[in-house]
């Protein structure tokens, strides 16, 4: 099981160590940060986060068995008027924690916050089309592909495509939106 706790300055060094290349930084954060990731960028990232009326909630992910921080996730672009938000910065940083269902647990916990605590209606995310494990994880949680945004980000000499995905509150309440999960 995992627990989400607010990400703070004491977590900066670990996150910086996990983000080891420009490609990884882009895959993790889109274009929000510049490589190399540093404390100044992270200070700005959490500056107005994690308050009752914040537009961004930023979390470290703790494996409750080992009590170790194993990942990172955020809920951003929180729009209380339109009852929407966007999941982002999804990362299982500890390699030994991968392929154990932790990603699925992280998504479930962030959706509990979005739908059960904040009472939102719609949650979105973006995922690069080559990240098949993440896409499977999101679909298993009930996210639906809405469309493929072509050539959204340039890395080196190539462009990456981004799937836009969403889940609505009634799909969350039904568990899987009525679809079978493999």
Structure description:
- The chain has helices spanning 12-18, 22-29, 39-46, 102-117, 132-140, 169-174; strands spanning 2-6, 57-63, 68-79, 84-92, 122-128, 144-155, 158-168.
- It is an alpha+beta fold.
- The chain has a domain at 2-124: Aminopeptidase, CATH 3.40.630.
- A 7-stranded mixed sheet has the order 1-2-3-4-5-7-6.
What can be said about this structure in brief?
By secondary structure, the chain is α+β, with helices and mostly antiparallel strands. It has helices at 12-18, 22-29, 39-46, 102-117, 132-140, 169-174, and strands at 2-6, 57-63, 68-79, 84-92, 122-128, 144-155, 158-168. Helix content is 30%, strand content 35%.
Radius of gyration: 16 Å
By CATH's scheme, which homologous superfamily of the domain at 2-124 applies?
Gcn5-related N-acetyltransferase (GNAT)
> SSE string, helix = H, strand = E?
EHHHEEEHEHEEH
Weakly predicted, low-confidence segments: 176-182
Largest sheet: 7 strands, mixed
Q: What would you call the shape?
A: globular
In CATH, the topology of the domain at 2-124 is named Aminopeptidase
CATH architectural grouping of the domain at 2-124: 3-Layer(aba) Sandwich
Beta content: 25-35%
Distance from first to last alpha carbon? 21 Å
């Amino acid at each position: 099981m995992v627990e989400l706790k607010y990400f703070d300055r004491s977590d900066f060094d670990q996150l910086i160590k996990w983000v080891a290349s420009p490609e990884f930084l882009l895959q993790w954060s889109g274009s929000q940060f510049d490589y190399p990731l540093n404390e100044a960028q992270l200070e700005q990232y959490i500056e107005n986060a994690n308050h009752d009326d914040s537009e961004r909630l930023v979390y470290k992910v703790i494996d409750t068995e080992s009590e170790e921080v194993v990942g990172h996730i955020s809920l951003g672009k929180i729009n209380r008027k339109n009852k929407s938000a966007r999941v982002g910065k999804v990362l299982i940083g500890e390699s030994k924690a991968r392929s154990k269902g932790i990603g699925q647990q992280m998504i479930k916990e962030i959706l509990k916050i979005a739908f059960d605590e904040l009472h939102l209606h719609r949650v979105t995310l973006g995922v690069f089309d080559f990240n098949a494990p993440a896409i499977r994880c999101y679909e298993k949680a009930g996210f639906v592909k809405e469309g493929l945004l072509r050539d959204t980000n340039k890395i080196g000499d190539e462009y990456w495509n981004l799937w836009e995905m969403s889940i609505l509150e009634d799909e969350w309440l039904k568990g899987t939106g009525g679809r079978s999960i493999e």
